[in-house]
Amino acid sequence: MNFIKLILLAVVLILAAMLAFAAIGVIFTALQYLFWLGVIIIAGAVAYKLLKKPSPPQLETGDPFLTLENAERTLEEYKRKQLSK
Prior knowledge:
There is one protein chain. By secondary structure, the chain is an all-alpha fold. The chain has one domain. It is 84% helix and 0% strand. It is built from two helices and no strands. The chain is rod-shaped and about 115 Å long.
């Protein structure tokens, strides 16, 4: 009876090891596919950036009133400096 239990234990250990190796193989295969998929995606993004037409330069979208106020302040400073001379 002990001999049968020993053989059964050995078979179970061998099957468990085979299952563990299979699981590790599946995990590493999935990681390998994910790596190559990432490389392809990065290469596609780089190619897209290199091959797309350059967009026209965008005009400044600043607030015109703010620019006018800055110009008025600068003009006032110049006037003060000219008057102090």
